[in-house]
Queue: 2 jobs
Job 1
Amino acid sequence: MLELYHGGPGANSLKALLPLHEKGLEYRSHLLNLIEFEQHEPWFVKINPNGQVPVLVHDGRVITESTVINEYVDECFAAVPLRPAEPFGRAQMRVWTKFVDEYFCPALSFLGWHAMIRTAVSGLSKEEFEAKIARIPLKEQQDKWRESAAQVWTPAQLDDWRRKVRVSIQRMDKGMQGPWMLGQQFTLADVSLFSMLIGMPQRYADIVNEKDSPKVVDWYARMMERPAVKAVLAIPRPAAQTLAARQAQSGAR
Ligand SMILES: N[C@@H](CCC(=O)N[C@@H](CS)C(=O)NCC(=O)O)C(=O)O
């Protein structure tokens, strides 16, 4: 029996959701609202001491880290393979998934948090906010919540993260080997990259567009046609709904 704790189709949660759907696997879905800090509640921190999603539970055993989850799922349920069969292809795939985890995702994440967290927590008093922060197990995540709510990141930091996002897209465009990142086979490299790219043609139109990254634009259109992608994108994203409601409230004030 498979269970997935996730925040809906965005970033690392999207990354772990996609292979389950590509493989047609049944799983019990546990949807958390990240803006309501549900991932830091004691019951969830017992499951993942980092207080983060996604988390896969397979026959009662817990697996964390989206990239690790995806390789695990592919090993256990190999009927629809999402990794190249030969070692060189698998190495190439891992260069992409590592690049996403260490370079692309962090830059994109800081920009996203800077854009949304202040509004997301605007309804909380200082004391309520600090009480929420006190429950976050990772010091780095406490800092990220506090700093993004206080908008302390400098224009130079924001520019550098934006530069990294542009570099990531350019690297993808140059590296595209066929209809999918590694050529003819759809792999976990596509899954990882798409989990970051989702919504970017709209939100980062100056970076992801026909002129500057034509292969990425074509690949993104192909991704959006995949039945598994359509199914995953239909799953609600509670944090996005909460954020939209708070944005509407703060716009009305
Ligand atoms: N390295 C972890 C990172 C997980 C992660 O950053 N999760 C985010 C959602 S994409 C999260 O739970 N954020 C809420 C928080 O940290 O409070 C992975 O790849 O699974």
Note: The longest helix spans residues 87-120.
Job 2
Amino acid sequence: MSIVNIKIDGKDFAVKEGEYILNAARANDVFIPAICYLTRCSPTLACRLCLVEADGKQVYACNAKVKEGMEISVDTPNILEERRAIMEVYDVNHPLQCGVCDKSGECELQNYTLELGVDSQSYMIPDTKRETINWSSVLHYDAGLCIVCERCTTVCKDMIGDAAISTAKRGGEPLDKAFKETMPKDAYAMWNKLQKSVIAPSNGTEFTNCSDCGECTAVCPVGALTGRDFQYTSNAWDLKRTPATCAHCSSGCQIYYETKPASISDRDEKIFRVSNEWNYVSLCGAGRYGYDFENRVDGKNEEAFTAAIEAFKKADVIRFNSVISNEEALMLQTLKEKMGIKLINPDARAFQKFLNAYSGVSGQSLYSLDFKEVMATDFVMSVGASLRKDNPNARYAFNNVQKLNKGAGMYFHPVGDNLVPTFGKNVELFTHKVGLEEAALYLIIDLFADKEQLPEDVKTYIDSFKSSATKTVKEKVMKDVTETVIDEETGESKEVTKKVPEMVEKEITVEKNGLVELLGKDADAFAETFEKMMKKKETFSLIVGEDLYFHEKAENIAKLIALLEKTSPVCVAMIPPKTNSLGVALICDLDDDASGYTVAYNENGDFRLSALGDGDLDMPAMNQQEGTLTNMHKRVTPTNAALEYKGYELNDLMKVLVDAPDETIDWTVELPKEKGFQAVEFDSLPNGYLNDGTENRGYALSTKKKRAKVLKVDKIDESSVLDGEIVYRCNPQRQFNDFSDKAHEIFESFGLYASPAKAEALGEKVEISFETKSITVSVIADERMEGDIVALADFKSAEDVYGLFDGSRYKTVTMRKV
Ligand code: SF4
Ligand code: SF4
Ligand code: FES
């Protein structure tokens, strides 16, 4: 990263080359007024408030890049006049309902009006009615309050990838022409647009493209876009903010739980909403709306506690999933070490084995990239993940690469999805057969690896897929054509030879890549497309998902990934399957099989500890706990209790069963250093972001070097290819576990998700017969799915969908209409 030297208002700063002036200023704590610009998204120039003077010229700070020696003035008299006029215009006809507006107290219109000293109004125009509308189950849009800053449309397109909303015509009164002559020009241009526009669903009147993430409500600077459930329930200043880590998936996003007493009569704290540092992190619908999953208990149930102690004393097995903290994982590991109880956790175990196979060959304990680094690449690939559903951060990264980095992408997945191609024009989809994931990896190795570095047998094997063929192509050639022309002056005729273009056919020899054909694409067409995709690309990333950890050939695939990293510029990021699968995989020595008396934690067993309120002994949910989680970015982040918990915790059991410290968070410092954790006390862990966007939450795991084994990879095993009726174990968007299911604003239900055509063919309900058991479920049409593979949700542990799939993510089944 090169550094350039600039001056802002006479002060010297060393900033990143190529940075926008606004970002450079923010990183150095210099304030430049700005409304429309969102860090991590493209500038839209909607507000024009960020005007500055750079080397004597007026520029927009969000859109002009720093240069060596640049001298910037933030406030010149002309700029101050423009800014004040812009704020006056924003205040024209803005409804005077601040007393009841949800944004009051944290409204950027209020703040900038005060900041820029607007105490009188120079402009007016008759108001026109603008509709208030509920867009979806969670979104409310008040067009009257909207200042058309386009933050919502920008975040939806550039970050989320749905592009569900855009500006639309509103038919406001035209501006008086005289304003054009009399008012500052940027303020006039902004007003002209504001007067003509509102925000509307991008596909007309229907509102079907939205994934209900609520990020548009987070970035809205005024009260125009709000959550329906939160509307009119609280003022910002009444709410207490508890910094935490979202507990739903392995993204581990930064969030604040915002609480206050439930009502005048009920003084127990209640979570009213979740907010986020939206400049640096984007949430999904589960993170934003799935917050009320707490387990309220009246007090300590001593009888249940005694029974739990007895259960642990006779336990052979502890069965648990990864919606637990690192500290709790360490407690369970301690029980294994001190009491010999086996630990069963299928999601973390599959991931652990995959990581081990990868590390064995790569020599690194962890995958190389985090997902913020993926966002910075300009060519991203994804294998083995349902990008839209498995993990929002992976999907946002894939989309963001296309939108901001003029990037390209390749998406390998058996389940058809019509959202991913909309991320960018350089996205190629390989909707391949289930079981051909090894072929996808071999193709990526072929496309990106330095062949000289590949083991000879791998090179020969890849070459065996190549063949030559002749192809007829049309080519433009310039031909000499001689014409007789009459000289206009002399009247004499003469011959003139000209070059004219002509299309001719010719035969060429082309190399056919059988790997491309095996993955369901035309090799010729792909070769041409790939050449275009690679233009001006310098940084390459691969996202790896859960399908691969549960693959029959998982170990070989992990080795192929390590081989790819060793021999090519492609770096890898992995999506841990559940919230804290990475933490559990590093902390616990997990078992493959175990039987006997089972104590279960948020799972099924003979004695159940449950944070869902339905077990033999209650436990606190993640929004009632202090502790840490290890997220997909390989970062250990703290989470805090937003709500009180009056019952027993796992550490209370530990104190009776083995030697244990006083508090759960006393375990934080004990997390295993040899696995990359640090000896940091919980209370010393930071939880925020710096002004330049640097993440200052917890700490990054350190990657340990290992001795790499000699590489030996297998060929593609086509016997693992599945045919027939195939069911995929996959949750709908916004559903990750029993806790997201418990939240009252998450509506996606348990069932079988199918493309609209497949859903119609299947009918309302089907019986699915697996090898061991049958299950009857409702069929739910998913407009974004394509093809015949159907998806069975696994978020309800009571349904034991993991058990039905028996350590796999795809199964061949028979289905019968019920
Ligand atoms: S909720 Fe999310 S997907 Fe829907 S419009 Fe807002 S930003 Fe776009
Ligand atoms: S709804 Fe909010 S974020 Fe969207 S354009 Fe209007 S004011 Fe801006
Ligand atoms: S922030 Fe630059 S134009 Fe709005």
Note: The chain is about 25% helix and 25% strand.
